[in-house]
Inverse folding.
């Protein structure tokens, strides 16, 4: 029996026809290795922002039901385009909307929660050796209305579908090749983290690092689906998020613009030496600290004023 692999591609990965060809090559390489392939797509580029802007120009009070009906079109466009391309390359494929794929949600628009996935249609298409392309970020409620999952919701679609299909792996492709010890756009010395536990990744995401949708990590942990974050545009090893149990190691430093710096790593609560060194940095830089919180896997420090990136650099170098 062939393994089923779920691949999710974000908006930057499918932004134009040239990038769709790159995505198609990654998909067909895995398909040619006798895998069943299910692809989850985001809308192209800034399409969702464009649709929201246009809706708000028409009305100051857009009904959430109609907004969901509108913004769901972005994913449908990218899914159909990719299917057209793959079929032209000689690979049988089919695009499915969230509701065609059997993704049922609660009745909350804009931030819906998946309640059930009926996999019959997906499995039927896979049995015909088709590459199945599903629109991310959306499903259907009991009233047969379209619902969406909030920003980053395509990640949640991917992991939920992977769980429903008992997939071997779930790959999340974007324009970055994994999770880093801190924001590589701010600190060039940031290092890629090869592996994280679900708890660590959830802590990193909850602190504002735009890596994965929180709910997708929770689903991955519940159903023990390994999540692998990789770049669409190179073949470097990514970061594996799974049910690992690590030693007392700090993995990541996240800085939020609301004046919070967080350090994430399993067993961090027992690393008293690092806590002392962080407090020394705070004192040396004469920072006005409002709160210092420690949990099993995270240290969070809130400051009165926005903290300069040089403090982030000091703490990053410390760990």
């Amino acid at each position: 029996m062939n393994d089923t692999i779920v691949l999710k591609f974000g908006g930057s990965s499918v932004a134009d026809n040239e990038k769709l060809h790159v995505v198609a090559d990654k998909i067909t390489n895995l398909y040619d290795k006798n895998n069943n392939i299910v692809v989850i797509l985001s809308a192209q580029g800034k399409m969702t922002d464009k649709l929201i802007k246009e809706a708000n120009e028409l009305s100051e009070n857009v009904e959430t039901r109609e907004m969901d009906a509108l913004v769901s079109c972005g994913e449908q466009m990218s899914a159909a385009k990719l299917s057209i391309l793959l079929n032209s390359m000689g690979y049988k494929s089919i695009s499915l909307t969230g509701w065609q794929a059997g993704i049922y949600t609660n009745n909350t628009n804009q931030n819906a929660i998946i309640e059930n996935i009926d996999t019959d249609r997906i499995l039927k298409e896979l049995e015909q050796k088709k590459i199945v392309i599903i629109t991310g970020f959306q499903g259907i409620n009991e009233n047969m209305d379209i619902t969406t999952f909030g920003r980053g919701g395509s990640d949640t679609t991917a992991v939920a579908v992977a769980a429903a299909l008992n997939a071997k792996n779930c790959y999340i492709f974007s324009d970055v090749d994994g999770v880093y010890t801190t924001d590589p756009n701010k600190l060039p010395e940031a290092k890629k983290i090869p592996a994280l536990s679900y708890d660590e990744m959830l802590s990193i995401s909850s602190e504002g690092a735009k890596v994965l949708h929180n709910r997708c990590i929770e689903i991955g942990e519940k159903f023990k689906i390994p999540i692998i974050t990789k770049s669409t545009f190179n073949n470097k090893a990514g970061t594996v998020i799974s049910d690992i149990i690590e030693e007392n190691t700090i993995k990541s430093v996240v800085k939020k613009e609301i004046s919070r710096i967080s350090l994430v790593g399993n067993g961090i609560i027992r690393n008293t030496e690092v806590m002392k060194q962080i407090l020394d940095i705070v004192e040396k830089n004469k920072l006005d600290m409002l709160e210092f919180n420690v949990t099993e896997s995270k240290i969070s420090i809130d400051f009165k004023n926005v903290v300069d990136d040089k403090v982030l650099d000091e703490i990053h170098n410390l760990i």
